Amino acid sequence: MQETAPSNDKISSKIMVLPVVIGVPVAAVVLCAIGVPVGLYVIKPDLLVKLFMRYGMRSAGLKIKTIEGNDITFCYAERGIPNPDVPSLLFIHGFTASKDMWSTIIKKMPQNLHTIVVDLPGHGDTLTKVDEDMTFKGQVKRVHEFAELIGLTNGKYHVIGQSMGGAISGLYAATYPEEVGLVTMICPAMETPEMSDFTHHIASTGNVVLLPETVEDIAEMMTFIMHKPIKVPKQILKGALGLRQPKMDYYRKLFLALVEDRGALNESMGSITVPSQVIWGKHDKLIHVSGAEVLHKGLPSCHRLDLIPECGHSTNMERPGMVTKLLLKFRELEKNYDPIDIDNNANGSTVLNETSAEKVPILEAWLAEKKASL
């Protein structure tokens, strides 16, 4: 097990002040530098947040594009051109986030790597005309439809996902092993031996902090998605909330579908035969880090397991430089693979046979109650 030492790009980097789940990298210090009127900050904070999302994408060298499917318009961004000798990168975002969440990492990646980020159905600027199959496998099919549309399936590529996107990435690699050259799962959504703070919170309050309805709710959400939450100006939180509100009905339905399907990655991990990497923040409060050991033991080709100290669920916000470094190490390793000697139980805390006689019913009861109220 590779435990990575802290680096200088920790959360103390004040320039990024909104988390991965919001999917909005906001650079408050850049306000004056790019000439955004202060009135916009006061009157239209949601537009301000949107502008900074675009600023983050542009600073990472990503060009925003759209492409039409049969009943969907995918919005995505691309940097570079395909190289048959070097796997392209396809990044898949998390629940309620968007393609923009990856700009903090992509801006640190070598410019010569062909990179794609996509908005999943119902997220960001991807528009869908139908009721989506919200299961993980349904989303895998949508991502593959997108990959075919842009010609990515003509060569091997590296699929990278975080949280919900991490589970989608793993299932994608299991479903299309002839296309995927590498897969990286970052804090993926799955069943874990130990309950997370997030699951405990649902069990005790019935409240889902990932579905905020007020500015105060978003502030509370940040305490769950980051190891050491930073203080975000209230007006910026208000702007982020404004962007989310039109999609809240979709997000609620999606969350219920994901809870119901939460064991999908566990059930399919034995079929993920491509070279695999697992990255996890050691202090993840949303999805317990004990899942890392489950994947390490269950993946046929887990070539790297990297736990990041002093980091929570939002790895791309808290430790973007470290995530980039780990991705590049994995890609370099695969050029001449030599199995790493990994201690299977380095922290001595993961007990696989206690997967949850009491834990699963907690979520099952909550899920049944919510579905009955729809």
Automatic annotation (TrEMBL):
GO molecular function: monoacylglycerol lipase activity
Membrane topology: Single-pass type II membrane protein
Catalytic reaction annotation: 1-dodecanoylglycerol + H2O = dodecanoate + glycerol + H(+); Hydrolyzes glycerol monoesters of long-chain fatty acids
Cellular component terms (Gene Ontology): late endosome membrane; lysosomal membrane; mitochondrial membrane
EC number: 3.1.1.23
Pfam families: Abhydrolase_1
Role according to the record: Lipase that preferentially hydrolysis medium-chain saturated monoacylglycerols including 2-arachidonoylglycerol. Through 2-arachidonoylglycerol degradation may regulate endocannabinoid signaling pathways. Also has a lysophosphatidyl lipase activity with a preference for lysophosphatidylglycerol among other lysophospholipids. Also able to degrade bis(monoacylglycero)phosphate (BMP) and constitutes the major enzyme for BMP catabolism.
PANTHER family linked: MONOACYLGLYCEROL LIPASE (PTHR43798), MONOACYLGLYCEROL LIPASE ABHD6 (PTHR43798:SF5)
Protein name: acylglycerol lipase
